[in-house]
Every structure is written in structure tokens, then in C-alpha cells.
Amino acid sequence: MSPFTVVLIVPTGVGAAIGGYAGDALPVARAIAEVSDCLITHPNVLNGAQLYWPLDNTYYVEGYGLDRFAAKEWGLRPVRQNKVGLLLDQGIEPELRLRHIQAADATRATLGLNLTDYVVTDAPLEVELRTADSGASWGTIGNPGSLLRGAQKLIDQGGAEAIAVVARFPDDNDSQELQDYRHGSGVDHLAGAEAVISHLIVREFQIPAAHAPALQPLAVDPDVSPRAAAEELGYTFLPCVLVGLSYAPQFVTTPSPATNTIWSESVDAAIVPYSACGGSAILSLASSQTQIIAVTNNSTQLQVNPEPLGIKVTQVNSYLEALGVLTARRAGVDFRALNPSISSLRCL
User: Which fold has domain 83-248?
Assistant: First the structure.
């Protein structure tokens, strides 16, 4: 019998009520991993600044790579440990840069991660933040060529098998968006730009990548929401990225007979917020035999419901209910049989 494989998606930068903050979808991932043989998810779900929870049966897959996987273009090959390259934005101030280097050294000494020597980009990356009309966040990079040249150097000279990027993001301590986010509402205004950075590297080099923003520490706020509190713990968000990339599967970009490579045909179920069904991965998986489970109480700033897209979903109210559907599916039980009444069969 093939492994029971689940994909968990919470889109980045769309204000998801669960998963729109600092790793606050991690409890969901941990629970789903318990009822799955294999869970495939992405950094937005697993990254919690200095908090993280490696799971033996969970694949940490960057969003662009997840889209290619769902489209049946790339496979996922598990690894024991990646050699992770650290790419630092030239625009980071010396003291803040040192904090990130020390955090990276700490993961080597305390967690046993394998890192290359770091590279500083040959020009500041010049990240700018934007907000779409929908309220979702996005951003631009002024010097994408510098980003890619730095990544190439890590691969060629350092032997990097995965790349962690730290870019200097604008400080906007007084913005209403930041205050809303810290108090548990609104959108993570950094997340959209972060996705652009990692997408560029994965698209160009076909290796795992993820990003951590460099920011000056914020003043203490006694009203910070628990969902955003992981970002209050220190000077850097880098540890969770290095941990995730250390065990991220490698991408297989050509058909391979290897028995340990996972392809999207093996995905049994995919879970997504009900109002965020328009992503590339869900559109691809919806055209397969994968069961799409849409969670209504994980609201987002988007209004991309499955019905107008012609996507057939199993609609559930919560992730607790989704766990019940997965458990029944894994047991070979039609979840509809768990209700007190069942309709009679009809003639086709």
C-alpha cells in the first residue's frame, strides 16, 4: 500500500487567520503529520522565527517548488541533511549582520547543522514592500541579479545544496499595518516580498531556498498577540529557516526511476483555506485524483472560493474537522458514513 500523503497549504501574505502570523500553523502541521505517512508543506507553515518543530515525515518545500511538484513537473527526493549556504544582503548594517552570523553559528554548534561559509551580495538588494487592492502583501527587489550571483557563488564555491537568504527589509515601526499584525489582525506585510526572493532562487537553480528578513528589533509591546509573539524573541528570524532547509527535499526535475522520489500522483489529499483556492498548486492538484479539503474558518483577505473555479472540494469548518476526514480516508472509511443519517443510493 502506498504511503498516505497529504499537502498542507496556507498561502503567504494573505492574512490567513491561522498561518498568517509567526509559524502559527505549526500546530496544524504537527497534528496532520500524526495522521499521515508523509506531509508536504511550505516554509510559511513551518517557520516560526526562533521556534520550529522538525518532523520526520514532513517535507519543507518552497512555494515555487511546490507549484512545480503539483504540476507533475518536479519530484521530491528526501535527504538526511543538506549543506546550507547563507546569503546576506549587503544592505544589512554591520551589527545586524553579525547577529545573523552568530545565529547561523549557533545552529552549527547547538543543532549540528551543516553550513557553508556565508556570502554577502555584491550590491544591496533594495527590497520594497507593496500591498495589493485585496489587502495581500507583495514586494519588489531592486537588484535581483545580485541575489542570483550570490546564490551562484554559494553553489559553485561553497557546495551549497540549499540556500537561506537574509535581506534587509524596510523598518516601518510606526505603520498601522505592523501594529495590526503584532496585535493579531491584518496581514504580514513582509511575507509577499519574502516569497518573491525564494521563488527567484528556486526557479533559477532548482534547489531548496527560503528567506528570513533582517529588521531592527521592535520596542516591547505588552499587547502583542500570541500568534505574532515568536517574532519578538530575538534579533533574527533565521534559525527556523536554517533548520527547515537542512532537511528540505531536493527537487528532481526529470523523470527518475528512483523509488524514494515522491511525485504528485501519490498525493491523497490537499488542505487549503476555503477562500484561497486559486493558487497554482491547488489548481493543479484539483485536476487529479487528489481530494481537496477546504477549511472555511481559516479566513483570508482573498475571496477565491472553489465553486467559481470549478474545483470540487470537501468543505469543512475547521482543521479539527479536516483531521477527522483525513483519519477516515486513511482508514479506508467514507467520512460521510460517520454522520447519523445517510441518503439512499440513486440510479445513475
Answer: Rossmann fold (3.40.50)
